[in-house]
Amino acid sequence: MRLIGLGLAAALLAGCSADTERDEAERNDAGSSTSVPAQVADDARPFEIEEVATFDDPWAMTFLPGSGDLLVTERSGTLYLRDADSGDSVEVDGVPDVAVAGQGGLGDIVTGPTFEDDGTVYLSWVEADGGVSGAVVGRARLETEAGSASLQGLEVVWRQPKVSGNGHFSHRLAVAPDGEHLFVSSGDRQKKSPAQDTSTTLGKIVRLTLDGEPAPGNPLADEGGDAADIWSWGHRNVLGLEHAADGTLWASEMGPEGGDELNLVEAGSNYGWPEASNGSDYGGGEIPDHTDGDGFVAPTASWTPSISPGSLMIYTGDLFADWTGDAFLGALSGEGLVHVDLDGTTAGDDEIFEMGERIRAVEQGPDGAIWLLEDAGSGRLLRLTPA
Ligand SMILES: [Ca+2]
Fold first, then answer.
1. CA-CA distance, 330 to 373, in Å (whole number)?
2. pTM above 0.85?
3. Where are the transmembrane segments (predicted)?
């Protein structure tokens, strides 16, 4: 394990190519140790960028099977449907009231496995009750007519415990390739210790049935209560949750000061927060790094200083033929797109394409193009295609 000194980190961020090469060499020797992604010069990017549209503080997007139309959430509580043919976006009616504060608001949206038959979508948002709040997951049917769209039959299927504060909701959604399970990331709500407490779903990834019930076969099913929802624990703030083509589940996790993580998520595994992290507490309090034999699962890749991964996509297309099977993370403070070479469950080199803005979301389009959403009041929707 190795932490990069601030001097080297600053030099890397300033774009010193010699230091970047040195870091590459060290990382290759050091396996999963924490690192800085290699910077790719703008003129060496293998893609060109098309500006498609803008949204107001967009948070998530998902392409619809069949049509290729795009749903985009805005954190303030608006959902848009963008028509793939015309490029026009319409506001979707029937979105629930959301509590907008801090990191909270309208969150993720994904299509259910039966979407093409019945329009089922799952979405997440923050619900407040007096002085406490928590994420919820709802299910509805997306209905479209010429020029309009709405959510029908909305029902809440899962609730995160409500506590004080407005951070670390996580509330990222992923429907399993088996078509039978819904995974939800549930952040530690900045309370830290609940992540190691298996009687609460804070600081966890949960696995639910499509109706939001604890999925049969979950690792702590015998404990009952909220424990029966839990798939994995020791998580801080998982803002990226995505299955690879082979069915493995990956998560990107915001570390504290440093120690951002890419994790292979497996049933019953403990990812260490807040007992182990390659980062440190804000203000300098040390947290033991991940080490062999500490009882926690170490990240497949981690980054210090922070890149702040706000999203994760595992590329399954062939438009970018060299990237099939690789991981892409939208970096908020890193203001770029991070590419991690994945070979099965092993991470190789990683690199960052600087975009000049905080990147909130990354998705793969129907044709294999890579789409990004900027995290800004007038955040651009960008389409990346081979140069
Ligand atoms: Ca540490």
1. 9
2. yes
3. none
